[in-house]
Amino acid sequence: MPRQSPIERLAGKLLDIGNLSPPMRCGQVKAVFGPLFLLVQSDILSRMEEQTMPKSTTDHRTYRPKKLTTDDIRAGCIKLHGDDGVETEICVADEELRQGLDFMEKFDKAVTIFGSARTPATDRYYDKARRLAYRAVKECGCAIVTGGGPGIMEAGNRGAYEANGKSIGMQIVLPHEQITNPYLTDMLPFYFFYTRETAMRYAGEVFMFFPGGFGTWDELFECLTLIQTDKIAKVPVILVGSEYWTGMHDFVRTQMVSRGMVTEQELSAYVILDDEDAIIDVIKNAPIREKN
User: Fold this and answer.
1) What is the value of pTM for the model shown?
2) Helices (H) then strands (E): counts for the chain
3) 210 within 8 A of 132, measured Cβ to Cβ
């Protein structure tokens, strides 16, 4: 006789109750429906566990879920199978990651610049990013990496281009703002945000953050989290513009550190600087990361 599920056992008990007299029926209904929630919950969890366990088959097909390895990513496409036999081929995201990692291996030392796409060319931070990128190329021999768009990204690429250096754009298609700036010597297009961000995380020996909006802050805190958790090497993170970044730093100290959510030591993951000579010194002294 096949094993009954908890739901099937419950149905049997309800049928038995229907044959009882009304007084006894009332008491039995309370006894059965008390553990009803636990029975249903147990049945659901059991079924979920059965569905998510990787299957072992004689045809050696790979079943979902599968943790992707570096070899999987570099291989381009992989094929996974579900319990229903449907085959899924994963290609685009893997290919973007592989291309991004391979692309950046061509450059020995790079500075990755983040900041607002909406910063106009008349803004002083545009000029600052342009000057620093120029000096990073001339004085430090660095390539400059940005998202390839306008604003601060354009300023960084422009400075590198004017210094006859490598000016790299990792571009993504957005519904607004994201047009390719004209100061790129090398460009790699992306469709997915997360593959682009991953490639940019492994792209630089120094990360420079200029004032920006949601996207810039997302990139900053993801970068700090990866450094905090040792997922990427501890590289210099420079926040350019004390008038803009001091408020963030004060919030982190008064709210996060005071509540034990961030340690004082972890605040050393970034530095706030205005002086351009001091910023160039940080870039000069940054060690070259292993790109493997």
Assistant:
1) 0.69
2) 11, 9
3) no
| β-bridge pairing 186-190 and 167-172 | parallel
The residue ranges of DSSP E strands in 177-270, in sequence order, are: 186-190, 206-209, 237-240
pLDDT single digits (tens) 246-273: 999 999 999 999 999 999 999 999 999 9
Contact 156, 174 (CB under 8 A): no
Amino acid at 226: L
Q: Which CATH topology does 104-285 take?
A: Rossmann fold (3.40.50)
CA 291 distance to own-chain centroid: 19
Dihedral (Cα; 236, 118, 197, 133), 10-degree rounding = -40
Measured in whole angstroms, the distance separating CA 101 from the mean position of its chain's CA atoms is 15
d(CA 230, CA 220): 15
CA–CA dist 37, 197 (Å, integer): 44
Q: CB-based contacts of 289: which residues, under 8 Å, 6+ apart?
A: 202, 205, 233, 235
At which residue do the structure tokens 């450059």 appear? 107
What is the token pair recorded at 96?
Answer: 């973007």
37 pLDDT band, cuts 50/70/90, is: very low
Of residues 190 and 283, which shows the higher confidence score? 283
